[in-house]
Structure formats: C-alpha cells, structure tokens
Amino acid sequence: MPEGRICLGCGTLVVGMTSQRCAPCERAADVQRVEERKAYGRTMKDTGHRARRRRKVYDSPAWKATRARVIARDGGACRLCGSTVRLTVHHIVPAADDDAAALDMDNLVTLCAACHGRIDGPKAARARAAARARRRRAPRTIGKGGMA
C-alpha cells in the first residue's frame, strides 16, 4: 500500500506528498501570509498615539529618503553580518517621540532582519517583562484590622 500524508490544511490523505500541506493548501497559505504581512502595520501594532506618530514618521517621504541614504552609505549590506537581503534601518538610540532623532543619520545603521531581531529582541523581551511587573500588584496581607 502506498504511503501518504495527511494535509494539515484540508485533512485529506495525499499520496507522495513531501510537505505538510497539499499544493492547493500551500498556495492558499502563501496568499494568507502575504495578506497578513500587508495588514501587520495597520492592525494591532498601530493603536494609540505613539503608534500613529511612528507611522506618520515612517510613511513620510523624508524617512524614505533618509532610509535610502543610510543603506547606500552602508554599502547596501548589513553592518553586522554583511547580508544584502531583507535590509532594515535600525535606530541606535531609540527615537520614540522625537521626529528629528528619527531622521538623524548618525543614529541610524543598516541591519538585515535577522540581526535587527537579535538586537531588538532582548530589548522587546525586557519591555514586556517590565509591563508584566507593572500589572502585577503586591499581594495584599491581612493584618489585625482586616485588609492592609
């Protein structure tokens, strides 16, 4: 009896399938991933005043020109690993609310997406941990007079 695999997308048994999904489900998953990437910057990420301000900066022609100049200055390659694919521009000192600092070329460096994630990943993890700590309240203790 020929061996087959069950497609994770539709659940059908497909003989000779080498991936986790059949061809139609793989194409549908690819389309969905593209749509999710397009919508990422317009959904949960962009709520609140700071996010709207950030979008205003990053959608501006001034940012796009500065970004292109930084990538050209760095030779079109990641400054850490030398990769030339999936390039991003990283703020060395975060420019959260200062538009001028966001466009300061001395504060910008070209990184690939992988190196950018390694640099910003620990920072993001620390920020999430700090937010969790702020949400937690010290446990209430019961003293002689009731709740203290």
Give an overview in words.
With 148 residues, this protein is α+β, with helices and mostly antiparallel strands. It has helices at 23-40, 49-58, 61-73, 99-102, 113-135, and strands at 4-6, 13-15, 87-91, 108-112, 142-143, 146-147. It has a two-stranded antiparallel ribbon. Strand 5 (142-143) and strand 6 (146-147) form a beta hairpin.
In short:
The chain is extended and about 60 Å long. With 148 residues, it is α+β, with helices and mostly antiparallel strands.
Walk me through the topology.
Layout: E1 4-6, E2 13-15, H1 23-40, H2 49-58, H3 61-73, E3 87-91, H4 99-102, E4 108-112, H5 113-135, E5 142-143, E6 146-147
Query: H/E order of the elements?
Result: EEHHHEHEHEE
- Largest sheet, spatial ordering of strands: 1-2
Shape: extended
Task: Quickly give the structural class.
Answer: alpha+beta
Low-confidence runs = none
How many helices? 5
User: How large is the radius of gyration?
Assistant: 23 Å
Helix coverage percent of residues? 40-55%
Summed over residues and divided by their number, the pLDDT gives a mean of 77
Number of strands: 6
Strand content: 5-15%
| Main beta-sheet strand count, sense and barrel state | 2 strands, antiparallel
Alpha-carbon distance between the two ends: 72 Å
